[in-house]
Design a protein that fits this description.
Elements lengths: L1 H9 L3 E3 L4 H6 L9 H6 L2 E9 L9 H10 L1 H4 L17 E7 L8 H9 L2 E5 L21 H13 L2 E3 L5 H4 L1
Parallel strand pairs: 1-2, 2-3, 3-4, 4-5
Helix pairs in contact: 6-7
């Protein structure tokens, strides 16, 4: 009751900014704890589903693997949010897509535009391994590469949020 009062009064809702459910499904494993039912019961308005490869760059076939993961989203029954992020609590849980590590793009800005058209709204520049965009926090120091700078510009143009949670401090600044 208190939770619903706070949500009504303040217009707040819960958003989970990361799950690996699509990777689990694509790998042939059960989806884990995230389902339309558990999101409803937990009062989660937005669930971010990561498209993730997990290998060391450079990757081959990363785009295709991410597309296979994306194709599994309908199995979960969570509708993909299309349009601006909501200001008020959604009536039902919605999915938001992210890319975990820009190595999935295989160094292609056109791939970024294609993923945006398919609904991707956020992307980490790096994960745990250096890639064409930059160096993650766990791998050392260094600014964004020339490609990384072009990628951030393209993300801004496409309306893709730049997640710097794995990026090192030099790259962040």
């Amino acid at each position: 009751m208190l939770k619903s009062m706070i949500q009504r009064e303040w217009g707040m809702f819960t958003a989970d900014a990361h799950c690996d459910t699509l990777l689990r499904l694509e790998s042939g494993r059960p989806p884990g704890p995230v389902s339309l039912d558990t999101l409803r019961r937990g009062g989660v308005g937005l669930q971010v589903f990561a498209l993730f490869h997990g290998g060391r760059p450079p990757l081959s076939g990363a785009i295709q693997r991410a597309l296979r993961q994306l194709a599994l989203l309908p199995e979960l029954g969570v509708p993909l949010l299309d349009g601006p992020l909501p200001e008020h609590p959604p009536q039902n849980p919605s999915a938001v897509l992210s890319i975990e590590g820009s190595e999935i793009l295989e160094e292609s800005l056109e791939a970024l535009a294609r993923f945006r058209r398919l609904g991707v709204r956020m992307m980490n520049l790096t994960w745990n391994h250096p890639n064409a965009a930059g160096v993650p926090a766990l791998a050392g120091r260094g600014p964004l590469t020339a490609f990384g700078c072009r990628l951030v510009e393209a993300m801004n143009q496409e309306g893709v949020l730049c997640d710097v949670s794995h990026l090192n401090e030099d790259g962040f600044w």
